[in-house]
Write a structure and sequence with these properties.
Distance between the termini: 38 Å
Helix content: 10-25%
Shape: elongated
Structural class: alpha+beta
Largest sheet: 8 strands, antiparallel, barrel
Length: 177
């Protein structure tokens, strides 16, 4: 009997929240501009800048917690033979992640970046921290996200003795459903 009472209470709460639940659209699929910068603290090295496209898939578990995966493909802005392809996985907390309105968020994630140079390639991976802002309309979302990557893998593989700052940013337009 207690089970049926709890079940009835659960169903009642879901029906009561039903009006708001219809406005929630947890899935997003989109694409847009994706850029990355490898910034060298030593002025004798020139910063490496990449730009290209990103394709993303996201899911908001609640209006306050979501995850997003982005596949990116970029070219070096100075040397078009150098390319960068990879993925970003990002889990974040914020507001209005599944409903209409302005949203802001921050979180942690993982990246894998494979850079193809003229005669070789290197794969870099690690953790990243980031945040973003955006707006959700009824069926469209706009997100601007900045991620700061752990630079230790880049420093080690590029034999760089100087500190580096590695960041990526994206401006993504998505379909919400």
């Amino acid at each position: 009997m207690k089970f049926l009472s709890l079940l009835f209470l659960f169903v009642s709460l879901n029906v009561h929240a039903g009006n708001d639940a219809f406005s929630q659209k947890p899935f997003t699929v989109g694409g847009g501009v994706y850029v990355s910068t490898l910034g060298f603290d030593d002025a004798t090295f020139q910063d490496e800048e990449y730009s290209g496209l990103g394709l993303s898939l996201g899911y908001a578990f609640t209006n306050f917690f979501a995850v997003r995966g982005t596949y990116f493909s970029q070219e070096n802005d100075d040397f078009s033979d150098n390319t960068s392809k990879g993925i970003d996985l990002f889990a974040y907390f914020g507001s209005h992640l599944a409903t209409r309105g302005f949203k802001g968020y921050g979180g942690v994630g993982f990246f894998r970046d494979t850079q193809q140079f003229t005669s070789s390639s290197e794969t870099f991976d690690g953790l990243q921290l980031g945040g973003g802002i955006g707006y959700n309309w009824d069926s469209v979302a706009l997100d601007f996200t900045v991620l700061i990557r752990d630079s230790s893998d880049y420093e080690a593989r590029l034999n760089n003795t100087e500190e580096m700052t590695v960041a990526s940013g994206s401006l993504i337009v998505s379909y919400r459903f």
